[in-house]
Design brief:
Plastid-encoded RNA polymerase subunit alpha, Gyrase A, domain 2, six-stranded antiparallel beta sheet, 16 strands, single chain, elongated, 2 domains
Length: about 280
C-alpha cells in the first residue's frame, strides 16, 4: 500500500494504492468542493475483457440508490400548532421553515464517522435563536459525533426581538426506505382497522411535523472503462464519485462493495445447499 498526502491552499489530496495479486484499487484524487460536497476519482482493475462492465453497473446502482443517509424526520417548533401557523417576528411561514430544514446536510464525525460500524442511528438537534437575527446552520446545536456539512445554509430570518425554538430528530436511514432506520429490520405493518381515539390525540397534540425525505448522499457517479493490456485483453475502470458531504466518496465505494458482496455471498450459500440436495433427488428418480 502506498499513501501520500499533499496539502495546497486548503485542499487535501490523498493518494493511495492497494494491490492484491493481479488486482489494484487506488484513489487518484480527493477534494472538498462547494457547499461541503466531496469528490474523488478512483482507479481499479485489472479485469478480463467484459468483466469491468459487469462489475461497474451494479456498483453504480448501489452508489446512487442504496446509501445510508442522515435526514431530519421529525420537527417540533415552539408556539406552532399546525403547518399553516405564523410565527411572530419570523419572516418565513412554517412550510418554508420546514423546507429550509430539509436542505441541511449532516455527517458523522469522530468515533461515529463510519456508518458501517456505527451503533447510533438517532440524534437530537436544537435551535434556539433570539432576534433580530439571520438563522443558518451555524446556529444549530448538535450532539457529539454529528456535524452540519453546510453551516451557511439559510433557515430563517427573525425580524424583531422574538425567539425561535426548534427541536428536531435526525435519523440514519436506509435510502431505499426512509421510514426504516439503517441496519434495522422493517417492522411488519399493523393491518388492524380499529380506531384508537386516545392514541390519535396523543400523536397529534405534540405538534410534531413528520418530514418526507428523498435523500441522495451520492450526487453523481461517472466511470470510464479503458484497455489496460491489449495483448492479454485486460481492462481498468476510472470511477468518479460526488457526495453531498454526509459521507466521503471512499466510504460510499466501500459500502457499495460490501452490499454487493453480501448479496452474492447469500446466494452462494443457497446454491451450495441446493447442490447437496440435488444428488439425493437424483437417487430417488
Amino acid at each position: 500500500m502506498v499513501n501520500k498526502t499533499v496539502t495546497n491552499e486548503g485542499l487535501s489530496l490523498i493518494l493511495f494504492m492497494t494491490k492484491s495479486g493481479t488486482s489494484f484499487f487506488s484513489c487518484l484524487e480527493s477534494r472538498v468542493e462547494q457547499d461541503g460536497e466531496m469528490y474523488a476519482r478512483f482507479y481499479l482493475g485489472k479485469f478480463s475483457r467484459g468483466q469491468a462492465l459487469t462489475l461497474i453497473n451494479p456498483l453504480r446502482r448501489v452508489l446512487l440508490g442504496e446509501m445510508p443517509a442522515l435526514i431530519i424526520n421529525t420537527v417540533e417548533i415552539a408556539g406552532v400548532n399546525h403547518e399553516f401557523s405564523i410565527l411572530d417576528g419570523v419572516q418565513e411561514n412554517v412550510l418554508d421553515l420546514l423546507l429550509n430544514l430539509k436542505g441541511l446536510v449532516f455527517a458523522l464525525t469522530g468515533s461515529h464517522s463510519s456508518f458501517l460500524k456505527n451503533d447510533t442511528n438517532s440524534f437530537t438537534g436544537y435551535l434556539n435563536v433570539k432576534g433580530p437575527n439571520r438563522v443558518t446552520g451555524h446556529d444549530i446545536k448538535l450532539p457529539h459525533g454529528l456535524t452540519c456539512v453546510n453551516p451557511d445554509h439559510y433557515i430563517a430570518t427573525i425580524t424583531i426581538a422574538s425567539q425561535l425554538q426548534i427541536h428536531f430528530q435526525i435519523k440514519l436511514v436506509d435510502q431505499r426506505n426512509t421510514s426504516t432506520e439503517f441496519g434495522a429490520s422493517k417492522e411488519p405493518e399493523n393491518t388492524s382497522t380499529t380506531f384508537n381515539l386516545k392514541e390519535f390525540e396523543n400523536k397529534f397534540s405534540k405538534k410534531t411535523f413528520y418530514l418526507d425525505a428523498f435523500p441522495a448522499p451520492v450526487r453523481r457517479v461517472n466511470y470510464v472503462i479503458q484497455d489496460l493490456d491489449t495483448v492479454n485483453e485486460t481492462e481498468s475502470i476510472t470511477l468518479e464519485v460526488w457526495t453531498d458531504g454526509s459521507l466521503q466518496p471512499h466510504q460510499a465505494v466501500e459500502f457499495a462493495f460490501q452490499q454487493l458482496t453480501y448479496q452474492f455471498y447469500t446466494f452462494t450459500k443457497l446454491s451450495k445447499r441446493i447442490s447437496t440436495e440435488i444428488p439425493n433427488l437424483m437417487s430417488l428418480s
